[in-house]
Structure formats: structure tokens, C-alpha cells
Design goal:
The chain is an alpha+beta fold. The protein has one domain (about 1-50): Anticodon-binding domain (Rossmann fold, 3-Layer(aba) Sandwich), CATH 3.40.50.800. It has three helices and three strands. The protein has helices at about 1-5, 15-20, 40-50; strands at about 10, 20-25, 30-35. It has a three-stranded antiparallel sheet with strand order 1-2-3. A hairpin with a 3-residue loop joins strand 2 and strand 3. The chain is globular. It starts with a helix and ends with a helix.
Length: about 55
């Protein structure tokens, strides 16, 4: 279903990520951005939003 809506980012958070306080991030088009902290992801999307304004 997420593929039909075309979100800019998809986050994956399984048991391993939960324990580490991280998320696996993919950008639109299946571009893997790797694993990062939740805070780092928030900074990433804030920068993305600011670059579009």
C-alpha cells in the first residue's frame, strides 16, 4: 500500500532497530539511505523540507 501513495521516505523499525534506537531509511525509488538514529532522520527530513521552501 505504501508504494501506491509514493511517500518520500519509508522507515523500517524491527527489533534490532528498536533496541538500538535507530530506523532503516529508504527514499522514494528504493534508494537505501542506511540505518540512522531517529534524531538524525528528523534532521534529514527538516533539511529536505527547508530545501523545498
Amino acid at each position: 500500500e505504501h508504494s501506491l501513495q509514493k511517500p518520500p521516505f519509508i522507515l523500517v523499525a524491527g527489533d534490532k532497530e528498536k533496541a538500538a534506537g535507530t530506523v532503516a531509511v529508504r527514499a522514494r525509488g528504493n534508494k537505501d539511505l542506511g540505518v540512522m538514529s531517529v534524531d538524525a532522520f528528523i534532521e534529514l527530513i527538516q533539511s529536505d523540507i527547508e530545501s523545498k521552501v
